[in-house]
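Memo to structure team: turn this sequence into C-alpha cells by end of day. - J.P.
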Amino acid sequence: MTPIPDAESPGVLTAVDVSIAYPHGETVVDGLSLGIRRGSLVAIVGPNGCGKSTLLRAFARLLPIAAGSIVFDGRELQSRAPRELARSLGMLPQSSTAPDGMRVADLVARGRYPHRRPFAPWTAADEDAVRRALEATGVTDLASRDIDALSGGQRQRVWLAMALAQDTHTLLLDEPTTYLDIAHQLDALELFRRINREQGRTIVAVLHDLNHAARYADRIVALKRGRVVIDGPPADVLTASAVEEVFDLPCRIITDPESGTPLVVPKTRG
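Reply from structure team:
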C-alpha cells in the first residue's frame, strides 16, 4: 500500500485519498495518495484506462475530485484563482485544437496570457519567452505558418512551445510525444530533462513507453485500476515481475548500454 505523502515534505503537488468519478458513475481513480517533490521529473505509466490522464487532469483542475484533497504549493488546489494557478502550473493535454487560421507565433504567444494584465502592452519579457519556446521546440521556422497547415508532429511541438512560453515552475504533460517521430520524441524528452535539470522545473509526464520513462525520469509511478501499485526510482522499481504485474507483459530487464538505465525487452508471445 502506498503511504500517504507527508504534507510537510518539500512537495509541490500532494494528493491524499483522492477519488475521481465521471458523471455516469464509474470511479476511475480510487483512494489514491501521491506526493510530487519539487524539482523532480516523474513519469506516470500504466495500462490504458488505469487513470493516468484522469489524474493529470485533476492535478490541473480540469476535472473535479469526488473525495480527498489535492494541495499545490502549500494550498488547496481548489482555492487558487485560475489566472494565479496558470502562472505556476501549466499543462499540455493529449490533444488540442486551435482556431482556424491561427498562426504558430500567435498560438505560442497565448502561453503568456496568465502573466499579462488586461489590455497591457506586449513586453520584451513576453517576446523573449515566446522566442525561447520556439527555439527550444525547433519550430522557429514555422512561426508565420497557419496551425492547420502543419503535420501532426509539428502541431504537437507548437503546443509544447505554448506550454513552455507559459513559463511555469510546474509542468504537466499528457502523452507529450504523441504524433512525434522517434527523433523528435527523443528531442522532446531531452528538452524536458534539460529544463528540469537546468531550470529546476517540476515535470510530471504521462508516458506510454516504459523505456523512455526509465531513461529520462527520476521516478516512475505505475497505476493500475486507479491506484498506485509501483512508485520509485526506475532502477529500483522496473523489474520483470513489476512489468508483468502492471501490464500483463512477460519480459526481461537488461541494462540500456547507452544510459545505464533499465531496458524492458518483451518476451515473444505464443
